[in-house]
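I'll show a sample.
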Amino acid sequence: MNYIILLRHGQSQWNLENKFTGLTNIDLNKTGIEEAHNAGKKIQKLEFNFDKFYTSRLNRSIDTAKIVIKYLGKKSENLINIDKINERDYGNLVGLNKKETMEKYGEKQVHIWRRSYDVPPPGGESLKMVIKRVESFYNEFLIDDINKNKNVLITAHGNSLRALLVCLKIYEPEEISNIEMPTGVPFIIEFKENKIFSSKFLD
């Protein structure tokens, strides 16, 4: 058996303020740091020997991973930073909170941008576009890790991790928009003979 753990970074200040963050490099807030420590403790209890640690290139993802891997007895030099698993680019919506966005564009239109599969916000990416980007990471790195029975931790973002769930065929593209990835809660995927055996959030 081998395992892949997906971990959305801890809460940032813009998460707290309900703002579209996208590629803006917002740091973890106090709650986010606590969430990262809690995630590290949960993953430590599994007693896995991890072979690979992937993060996006954004600080909130990297800092979450740095906290977690200390619990695993590893060093930050082991992190592999990949821009293909960066957060979805929300374009012109970045920096606006959800209320401001609905006042500016209308509730119906904002819902389409947030929850549709293939309609991007102005100047940004649709979830379909994110999946295509993340798929290249999956094909270049993750397939080989799975085939070699590696234990892998991936610390990234709500949308890029949902895209990975599609690449792994845990969810279909048409249902992934409704799947939530809470900050700081590890999602563990168990493999047997290179096939997914189980998947769940860690309590």
Residues 13 and 29 are 5 Å apart (CA to CA). The mean pLDDT is 95. The longest strand covers residues 2-8.
